[in-house]
Amino acid sequence: MNRLQNLRKALTEEKLDAVLISSLPNVTYLAGFSGFTTMDRDAYLLVTKTKQYIFTHGIYKEIVAKTVKDFELIEIKREKPISVALRVIVEQEKIKKLGFEAFDLKVNEYDKLIKQVSKKLLHPADPVNKLRIIKTPDEIQTIKKACALGDQAFTYILKQIKESVTETDLATELEFFIKRNGGDISFAPIVAFGPNASQPHHVPDGTKLKKNSFILFDFGVLLNNYCSDMSRTIFFGKANKDQKNAYEAVVTAQEESMKLITSRLSLKKQIKGSEVDKVAREYLTLQNFPSMPHSLGHGIGLEVHEPPRLTPISDEELKPGMVFSIEPGVYLPGEFGIRIEDLFAIEDKKLIPLTKAQSKFIEL
Amino acid sequence: MNRLQNLRKALTEEKLDAVLISSLPNVTYLAGFSGFTTMDRDAYLLVTKTKQYIFTHGIYKEIVAKTVKDFELIEIKREKPISVALRVIVEQEKIKKLGFEAFDLKVNEYDKLIKQVSKKLLHPADPVNKLRIIKTPDEIQTIKKACALGDQAFTYILKQIKESVTETDLATELEFFIKRNGGDISFAPIVAFGPNASQPHHVPDGTKLKKNSFILFDFGVLLNNYCSDMSRTIFFGKANKDQKNAYEAVVTAQEESMKLITSRLSLKKQIKGSEVDKVAREYLTLQNFPSMPHSLGHGIGLEVHEPPRLTPISDEELKPGMVFSIEPGVYLPGEFGIRIEDLFAIEDKKLIPLTKAQSKFIEL
After folding, report:
1. Out of B37, B62, B108, closest to residue A124 by CB
2. Average model confidence (pLDDT) across chain B
3. Cβ under 8 Å to A: B residues 12-41
4. Where in chain B is the domain with CATH 3.90.230.10?
5. C-alpha closest to that of B148 among B300, B352, B347, B355
6. Which residues from chain B sit within 8 angstroms of residue A103, using beta carbons?
7. Shortest Cα–Cα distance, B267 to chain A (Å)
8. pLDDT in tens, B47-88
9. A61 vs B360: CA distance, rounded Å
């Protein structure tokens, strides 16, 4: 119940009487139940100063009653939607200031709410993401395990590479390996051959592997609700000098970012996401590569992308307990794309790599 | 470009000058590109009376420019977010009434929009779902193919059933079969043994199969962006009279719904979703089974759940071109759950089954 205690502390700090949670990862985080779907809005939570409620449909009543015991279960129905159920509690508990997740709630959900609950009561608030950004050692341990399975999957997939194999074949093999070994995928794996990889989010297709091309892998494992995420780029055949140089530039860009974080941590000085993005980005542009069309990194946990952000404008300070990716890339349309992505945690003022697969240049 | 023409007709009818599309399936429907992720907001569309725009990040620029040729590509960035890009066009094209998808847009996205675009211009609108609810013969054909692969997967999975196999084993096997055969899953398969199935959305776990229990399968195929969805419940062992009766009640409930639709269609009389739900629901409660904790059915297409809805309060009329599920169920906590789900299309005033797997009682 530590998470609820921390949330209540945050409510007090933000002078809120309660908060309505709609975002699915936040529901999972607080209620410890991950069986809701993304197809419909299956549940909401309401956390007040003294009580916590879970609102869900009849379809989930049995399992929620059994597994989410710390929350009072309120069934919502077409005749008694969340807006009505919420009004009853707001009146009972005399809630005057109610936070809601404006980054998640849909405009029409909000419009229905304010027909039952005065608009003046409602305040955009995001206390749960602020808690989630700092992971406990247990959470970091879980992510580490997800990363370890990802590393194994990478070792496995290297053995499946042969001429004429398709991107889809390898993506499917990666996925099956992860699932056979007790994990799930945290997102649809990216496998991109040669010029396909210049699109950072290429969707694997029937492209066949030809000699002398890069292969970019970007994939992640989902284990006990926590995500990993890693990218590796290897060469099938014999790379030329330009290709090797581009690869080494990406490696160095990642190392420069790591060095900056490490030195700031050891000096006990603050380090912002934007500074880390800048050092990698500038290193690459100084080598005459185009500026990356994506940010350098992102936090990860219950979601693949969550705070902190390592973007050119991110003010977020990197702090102990944070877990994030560092993933510089070089993308040359018509030629190739290279990305190397690892996850790191800050623990005891140290930058700890969670992914361990080698990023030395591999030619197969 | 038929879809855009139809959308413009709808805009004229709703007296809108333009509509901002944010929902991912609607983006896929109109732009014909399905490579965006659900992790972040990757794209928006704006369709005006004469032009159509696609807004996306640098990460997707190359692929969108290559594949979404009918839309003018506008890159959005942190420095030039969607709200600003939109304002420019609203001013240029003198848009006075701009629809937006209130069922999809987040409150904080809306709040950012109205800092750039006058609130008075913005009107909740949902023209695309109104188009999508009526499928073309091609779309129905695609869903039919997805259903056929689902039927094959069901035949395959029957052969994998043996004592002590786990729910997770069978769910993984179903998924791998679908993927090995060129499809994807439209949602995480449900496999539930015995009492687990009384939770309609049970998440498969390590439960081992024991003799004399029901097995409920609910799964779907994703093929060329279109979804199938089917449920079958079979018996492992020898069922007793009560178990058989419950099964037959579900079969009959489904047949009663089908009969009602068929007779109304042949009489050229209207039939509402709520009437179909009612006939199945009442049949089951008359047999002394509890009222289903879910609706009888849902439309399906680019999304697993989309209009029309077959719920107790659905006013939607079932019309030619619609594709939907009919999925009655009996759920007895502590004992078992039974659900049979098939997809149907209304074509030429006939109710056409798209799933073909038998629903005769199976004992294995």
Report:
1. B108
2. 96
3. 34-35, 37-40
4. 137-353
5. B355
6. 106-108
7. 31
8. 999 999 999 999 999 899 999 999 999 999 888 999 999 999
9. 30
* One CATH from 3.20.20.140, 3.90.226.10, 3.30.450.80, 3.40.350.10 for A2-132: 3.40.350.10
- Cβ contact A234:A313 at 8 Å: no
Asked if A60 lies within 8 A of B198 by C-beta distance, the reply is no
A175, A199, A304 ranked by CB distance to B63: nearest: A199
**pLDDT confidence of residue B1:** 55
Q: Is B336 on the interface with A (CB under 8 A)?
A: no
To the nearest whole angstrom, how far is the Cα of A202 from the nearest Cα of chain B?
A: 8
Nearest to A105 among B107, B124, B200 (CB): B107
Cβ atoms within 10 Å of A236's Cβ, excluding its own: 21
Question: Looking at the predicted structure, is the pLDDT value of residue B39 above 90?
Answer: no
By C-alpha distance, which of B299, B258, B294 is closest to B275?
Answer: B258
**What is the pLDDT averaged over residues B98-108?**
98
CA distance B300 to B286: 29
CATH 3.40.350.10 in chain B: give the residue spans.
2-131
Distance CA(B106)–CA(B111), nearest Å, equals 9
- Could you report the per-residue pLDDT of B137-147, keeping only the tens digit for each? 999 999 999 99
Which residue of A107, A231, A306 is the best one to mutate when testing the B interface, meaning the one whose CB has the most B CBs within 10 A?
A: A107
The stretches in chain A having pLDDT less than 50 are none
The predicted model scores a pTM of: 0.94
In sequence order, the β-bridge partners of residue A98 are A18, A122
Query: What confidence score (pLDDT) does residue A101 get?
Result: 98
Cα→Cα distances B27→A63, B7, B40, B41, B53, Å: 35, 13, 14, 11, 11
Q: Which CATH class is domain B137-353?
A: alpha beta
The Cα of A304 is separated from the nearest Cα of chain B by a number of Å equal to 7
**Which of A78, A103, A198 has its CB closest to that of B313?**
A78
How big is chain B by its Cα radius of gyration, in Å?
Answer: 23
How many contacts does A have with B, using Cβ atoms within 8 A? 109
Q: Are A233 and A258 in contact (CB under 8 A)?
A: no
pLDDT of residue A1: 55
User: Which two structure tokens, joined as six digits, stand for B165?
Assistant: 């196999």
CATH 3.40.350.10 in chain A, residues? 2-132
Q: Is the pLDDT score of B125 beyond 60?
A: yes
Q: What's the pLDDT tens digit per position in A208-234?
A: 999 999 999 999 999 999 999 999 999
Cβ under 8 Å to B: A residues 67-106 = 78, 100, 102-106
Read off the pLDDT band of B348 (50, 70, 90).
confident
CATH topology of domain B2-131: Creatine Amidinohydrolase; Chain A, domain 1 (3.40.350)
What local confidence, expressed as pLDDT, does residue B78 receive? Answer: 82
What's residue A4's pLDDT? 97
Distances (CA, A) of A170 to A160, A165, A357, B173, B198: 7, 7, 18, 18, 38
pLDDT tens digits, B187-240: 999 999 999 999 999 999 999 999 999 999 999 999 999 999 999 999 999 999
- With tokens 């809701």, the residue in question is A36
Alpha-carbon span A71 to A65, nearest angstrom: 9
How much is the average pLDDT of B283-296? 96
Token duo for residue B92: 């240029």
**Which residues touch B277 (CB under 8 Å, ≥6 apart)?**
B257, B295, B296, B297, B310, B311, B312, B314
Single out the residue of A155, A220, A175, A146 nearest to residue A358, CA to CA: A155
Give the one of A40, A100, A305 whose C-beta lies nearest to B305's C-beta.
A40
Q: Angle of helix A107-116 relative to helix B107-116, nearest 10 degrees?
A: 100
